[in-house]
Amino acid sequence: MIKKITKKALADAYVERDLSWMYFNRRILQEAEKPRVPLLERLSFLGIYSNNLDEFFRVRMATLSRIAECEDNALRRESKQAQQLIGRINKLNAKYVMEYEAAIREVTRLLREENIFLLKETELDEEQQAFVRRFFYAKLSSSISPVWLSAVKQLTEEADDNIYMAVRLRTAGKKKHDYALIALPVAECGRFLRLPDREGKSYLMYLDDVVRYCLPMVFAGLGYEDFSAYAFKFTKDAEMEIDNDLRNSLMQKISKGVKSRKKGDALRVIYDAEMPKEMVRRVMEKLNLDKLDTVLSGGRYHNHKDLMTFPDCGRTDLKYPAWPPIVKAGLENGTSLLAQVQAGDRFIHVPYHSFDYYIRLLQEAAISREVKSIRTTLYRLAKDSKVVKALICAARNGKKVTVVIELLARFDEASNIGWSKRMQDAGIQVIFGVEGLKVHSKLTHIGMRHGNDIACISTGNFHEGNARTYTDYMLLTASRPITSDVNAVFSFIERPYSPVRFKELLVSPNEMKRKFIRLIDNEIKNHLAGKPAYILIKINHVTDQDMVRKLYEASANGVPVRMVVRGNCSVVPGIPGLSDHIRINGIIDRYLEHSRIFIFAAGGEDHTFIGSADWMPRNLDNRIEVVTPVYDPAIKTDLRRVVEYGLRDTCQGRLVDGRGKNEPWTTDDGGHAPFRSQEELYRYYLANS
Q: How far apart are CA 459 and CA 587, in angstroms?
């Protein structure tokens, strides 16, 4: 008899999405604390942690705050739960801030041991002072625009992607201070100023300290004799207020929504703990905070996201060894890529393999007389997108080119609007997704005049920049059943409320969740019948309650469930009788794990899938996502290798336990045999190139 999971059992063993995100981001912080991680890479992880946290507060904490502040009686329960969750998150955040500051101090100390010195304004010798003054007059002075704090009505009218210096100025003989505000011009001047090297030593300054040194020059002629400056930053609500006026086009609504972000309420403030109390009071008055907002005193420097671009000072020995993209066996023989795919399925696993193979496929399609049409989905685009250039080339060569571009790709809306206009001007038909449903699927369909059409189904964006740092899997196929379904997805996007059935693909919001549940149910039945049964999954996020319940149900009935989960995870492994057959490994390494792979034993048949969907309500219910079966035996073997390597990772893997401990992973026998999945995959592909 199949064991079922009650609502209460699920509630007791379900980790809230935002709490699990905090645990995930801490895994990134733990990478910055590892002695064996190269020093400059540790700096980069500190930057990633900071950047992630900023976006979390802009989006997720903004949503929680809105719910917590809701006065609708019908939502009283949800409001109270949101308040409690905000409290738990703030408590974790305060704890992690202390770890973060300690990590910053330790890495800075180790940089000094490597002869890389970050100097404060008080530590400059005469030669360095002269260099800073020249920099001020040559570049910095024209980029600084101080504002008197008394003239600022609300700081929330200012952009929250800046670091601000609160400046206290005093005239000789006067007790009263004046206060000014300076937004650091990081975009124009960079966050770090590199001073001249000397005797094998490298010297740098935070722009914050450069400005501190230059304050007498900034306020020259105003009679001030004493200057002090303290950094602070704030994070605003970034959830856009989308205008529902039907007279406005979707593009106009998104454009207005992007502008509305500048007016969001402040949700989090971090300031220098050395800032005088009177100055703190004056700054806080301008931020219009309430009791649910986060206010933290911190160190001297903020916006540590800039550590991701810390100058390497020529010290490549303090970074990961270069892993150039590997030549893909079979794709470098000079023959047509279109013909190769028509002859049999191919795959590209970036960044191990070069994303250029996909661009070459588009470029060949753009000039091939055999190609009549190209249709693709674009979610995020590189700054100088070669993908778009290839599509424009195809349109100019008379191909019918259709691009579905998602205007609601968070923080990339303005860029996507700009690209949309360029493509429209080139004669490309641009479709702005489906109102009410984000188009998150990663699909390309190439229509051929003769022979089978070609499809590319990817786990990640068609984005050259992402493809250098995100692990994503791309299936290139000419299988008629699959290419026909891909074609039907584009028809569905163009006519989203017309009835459509997919024979091969799992498509949300249509039937994806139901089909995944059926696959899990099948594993349970097979296990109880004595047939081979297991579930292997590599995914970014698992928070959908129906899917969490099904995973618990599989485990409670004895089905082994092994998962590699990078981010949010609402599953708690190891609960006796409920999840003791579930193991979850969370990997943080030089590449961001992004591919979604699903493998089911299916009684020995081994059903394998890849696609764009995580197991979250937004992916399964509110987005157009696509997951495809994989039939080619060699590709299925490679996908299994990817997942199994991830499960074996003891170097970069952390035990995802639902409690945030993030303990190092061990082998089945309790050992710590070192195994680093990304390095082993790179070696494997290199040996077989």
A: 17
